[in-house]
Specification:
single chain; Rossmann fold; about 40% helix; alpha/beta
C-alpha cells in the first residue's frame, strides 16, 4: 500500500501520463464513476496533477446516497412520523439527506417510535429480534457492493419468520446508468474509471458494452492514488491504440468473473426493475426489488408506502447535474455558500462519497 502512495511513484506515473497525452487532443475527459475515487482525487491532489497533464476528471453517479430520489427519503419520513411502535433503522448518511419534508435527522417520530442508525443490515435484524413488540423497518440503500448483504438479510428474516421486520429497499446497479450517460450529448466522455468494489462483485463483463457498442475505453481501478493513475494510464493506452476494452488495474481484489456467490444471493432474493436515479431520470432495469415470494419482507408492500417520483433536488441544488458529469460542484450557486457539510442542501454534500463534499473538503485547498 505504501508504494501506491509514494511520492516518487506518483510523480513517475504522472510523467508517464503526460507523455501519453502529449500526442492526443486535449482535454481528455475521463469519468470516475465511484464517489470514493472522487474523494481520492481531491484528497491527494490528483485532480490538479491530471489537469496539468491535459485530463479533465468528471465525477459520476457512483454514490448510492446521492442518487436515491427524495421520494424514498420522504416515504421513510412519513413512516416514522405517522406510525407508532416502529423502529426505523438505516445508515447514518441517509438520515441527513434534505427533502421538502426535511430530513430523517430532524423528523419527530410518532409515539413509541424511534430512528436507529445501524452499520449493517444484520444489525437491523438483531433490533427486530430484540423488539418483538415493535415493527422494524430497515431503510437499505446501496450498489452491488452492499446489495448481497441486504439480500442475505432478507433471506434470514424470511427463514426465521421475523414478522416484525421489513426492508425499504433503494438498490441500484451501476452498468445501466453508464449507458444513460453515454446516450446524453452533454458530457462527451472519452473514458471511464470503473469502481473497484462494485467490480469485485460483478466482474468485468457487465462493462463490455461500453467498449463494444460505444467505442469508449475503461479500466477498473482501486482507491489508492497509484491505483487511480494506473487506471488512467490504461485508458490512455486504449485511446492511443484505438482498441477500447475493459482493463483490470485492481487485480489484487477484482477477478474477471467477480464474486459468483454474492451474485447468486442477489439473484435468489431480488429481481430487476426500472428505477429513477437523481439527475438521470428513469433508467430501464437499473434497480433491484425484493421478489414477490418474499413480499412479506418488502416494506413498500407491507406498509403500503407511496413512492411518488418527482424532481428530486431541493430548490437551487444542482446535485443531479453533478451526478451526470454536466457540472463540477463549484458551478452550483449554493456550493460553499448556503450549502456546506454542516448545513447541506443536497445529498452530494452529505455523503462521504459525494462529489460536493469531496470538493469542499479538499478541492478548495
Amino acid at each position: 500500500m505504501k508504494e501506491l502512495r509514494a511520492k516518487e511513484v506518483i510523480l513517475s506515473l504522472i510523467s508517464s501520463i503526460e507523455k501519453k497525452t502529449a500526442v492526443l487532443p486535449k482535454p481528455i475527459k475521463i469519468m470516475e464513476v465511484c464517489g470514493t475515487h472522487t474523494m481520492t482525487l481531491h484528497r491527494f491532489g490528483l485532480k490538479e496533477m491530471l489537469s496539468g497533464a491535459g485530463i479533465e476528471m468528471l465525477s459520476g453517479p457512483g454514490c448510492p446516497v446521492c442518487i436515491t430520489p427524495n421520494s424514498y427519503h420522504e416515504a421513510a419520513i412519513d413512516l416514522i412520523t405517522r406510525r407508532q411502535h416502529l423502529i426505523l433503522t438505516t445508515f447514518g448518511d441517509m438520515t441527513r439527506v434534505p427533502t421538502s419534508k426535511g430530513s430523517l435527522q430532524n423528523a419527530v417520530p410518532a409515539p413509541e417510535s424511534l430512528i436507529k442508525i445501524v452499520y449493517s443490515p444484520f444489525e437491523s435484524i438483531e433490533v427486530a429480534r430484540q423488539n418483538p413488540d415493535k415493527e422494524v423497518v430497515f431503510f437499505g440503500v446501496g450498489f452491488e457492493t452492499t446489495i448481497p448483504a441486504i439480500a442475505l438479510a432478507v433471506k434470514t428474516a424470511f427463514r426465521e419468520r421475523l414478522r416484525n421486520y421489513s426492508v425499504l429497499s433503494a438498490l441500484w446497479i451501476i452498468p445501466p446508468p453508464l449507458r444513460a450517460i453515454l446516450d446524453s450529448p452533454e458530457v462527451g466522455i472519452q473514458g471511464f474509471l470503473y469502481p473497484g468494489h462494485v467490480s469485485a462483485i460483478i466482474g468485468l463483463r457487465p462493462y463490455r458494452f461500453v467498449a463494444e457498442e460505444y467505442g469508449i475505453p475503461g479500466s477498473v481501478a482501486g482507491f489508492e492514488p497509484g491505483d487511480m493513475l494506473l487506471g488512467v494510464s490504461a485508458v490512455l493506452d486504449q485511446i492511443r491504440n484505438e482498441r477500447p476494452s475493459v482493463s483490470n488495474e485492481y487485480a489484487r481484489v477484482v477477478r474477471p468473473d467477480g464474486n459468483p456467490q454474492a451474485r447468486d444471493i442477489m439473484e435468489e432474493m431480488l429481481e430487476p426493475k426500472d428505477a429513477v436515479w437523481r439527475g438521470l431520470g428513469l433508467i430501464p432495469k437499473s434497480g433491484l426489488k425484493i421478489k414477490a415470494k418474499y413480499r412479506s419482507i418488502d416494506a413498500e408492500h407491507k406498509h403500503k408506502l407511496s413512492l411518488i417520483h418527482k424532481d428530486s433536488d431541493t430548490e437551487g441544488c444542482r446535485c443531479g447535474e453533478v451526478l451526470r458529469g454536466k457540472i463540477a460542484p463549484p458551478e452550483c450557486g449554493l456550493f460553499a455558500r448556503r450549502c456546506k457539510p454542516d448545513s447541506p442542501y443536497g445529498p452530494c454534500m452529505v455523503s462521504f462519497e459525494g462529489a460536493c463534499l469531496a470538493y469542499h473538503k479538499y478541492g478548495r485547498r
